[in-house]
Amino acid sequence: MTGPHPTLELTDEVARAVRDGDPVVALESTIISHGMPYPQNVEMAREVEGIIRDLGATPATIAVLGGRPRVGLADADLELLGSSPAVDKVSLRDLPYVMARGGHGATTVASTMRLAALARVRVFVTGGLGGVHRGAQQTFDVSADLTELSTTDVAVVSAGVKSILDIGLTLERLETLGVPVLAVGTDEFPSFYSRSSGHSAPMRVDSASEVAAVMRHKWELGLAGGVVVANPIPEADEIPADEIGAIIDRALSDMAALGIRGKEATPYLLGRIVEITGGASLAANIALVKNNARFGAGVATEYASL
Ligand code: PSU
Ligand code: MN
Fold first, then answer.
1. Is the CB of residue 161 below 6 angstroms from any atom belonging to ligand 1?
2. In 3-state terms, what secondary structure has residue 198?
3. Which of 42, 52, 284, 287 has the greatest CB tally within 10 Å of its CB?
4. Contact call for residues 233 and 159 (beta carbons, < 8 A)
5. How far apart, in whole angstroms, are the C-alpha atoms of residue 98 and residue 87?
6. Residue pLDDT, tens place only, 230-244
7. pLDDT at 2 over 80
8. Whose CA is nearest to atom 3 of ligand 1?
9. Which among 34, 109, 192 is the best mutation to test ligand 1's pocket, defined by most ligand atoms within 8 Å of the CB?
C-alpha cells in the first residue's frame, strides 16, 4: 500500500494503524544488516517485532528494498536484510543514491527517522545512537544521526551511546542542536553496555507518559526535531564500564591500525567488539534492544492516547 508520501511503501497493517492513530513503533535496519552477526540479527529483529505486538502496538521495520523505501516488512525481508551482503548501509546522504540504483539499503537512525516521519510515525526504537566519534576534533566524524535529531520530529528510544564515541561531546552537540535528552529512571546518561557513563543525564523521566508529554509540548510549540530517550540496559544484562572500556579501546586501536574511517567505522567497531568478547557483547546488545522495545511500545501507546 502507498503511504502518506507517494514514494513510501507501507504495509496495510502499518498504513491502517497510522490512519487510525493507533500506536506504531518504527525500527531501524542497520542494526540488523551491519550491527549484529547472522542469524542472531534476524532472530533479534523478529523478537523485537513480537514484543511490540504483544504490547498492543504495531512494529514498522524500515529499509530500502529494490530501491523502494519500505515501512513495515515481511519475515522474508528481515531474512534478506540479515543475511545478504548486497545490503548497503544507508544514512541520509545515501538514500537517493540507493533508490536511484534500485538497490537494497539498511537504514541508520538518521534515515530511519526521516522515513518514519514521512510515514507519520513518531516513535522509533533502536539500540544505540550515532554521535561524535572520539578524535572528531581532527576527523570531523560526527554521525548524521545528530543533525537529523535537530530537524525531524521523532522520539528515538536507545540505551544511550557506546563509548566508541565521545559521550561528553555527543551530549554537547545535542544541547546545541536543541534536542531534549531524557534518561529513563536514572540521573546518569547510560553508555549502551553499561548503566553508567560518568556523564549526568541532562533530564530525567520515570515513565512513558512523561516522555509522551515532552513530545507533545515540544511539537505543539513548533520546536522541530527529535527527542532522545536514553533507557539504560537492565542491571542483569549489563557489562561493567571498566570491563567493556578496555575492549572498546582495543577495537579502536585495531581500527586505527587498519585505517578504517567514514561509514565503515561504526560497523567495524561493533563487529570487532563482538569478536573480542566472544559474543558476550552480543547478548547484552540483544537484551537492551528488547528492553527498549518494551519501553518504546509504552511511549507509542501513551502518545497515541493524547
Ligand atoms: N551504534 C550502535 N549500534 C548500531 C549503530 C550505532 O551501538 O547499530 C548504527 C545505527 O544505525 C546508527 C549508525 O544510526 O550505526 C551510525 O553510523 P554512523 O556513525 O556512520 O553515522
Ligand atoms: Mn561517521
1. no
2. coil
3. 52
4. yes
5. 10
6. 999 999 999 999 999
7. no
8. 128
9. 109
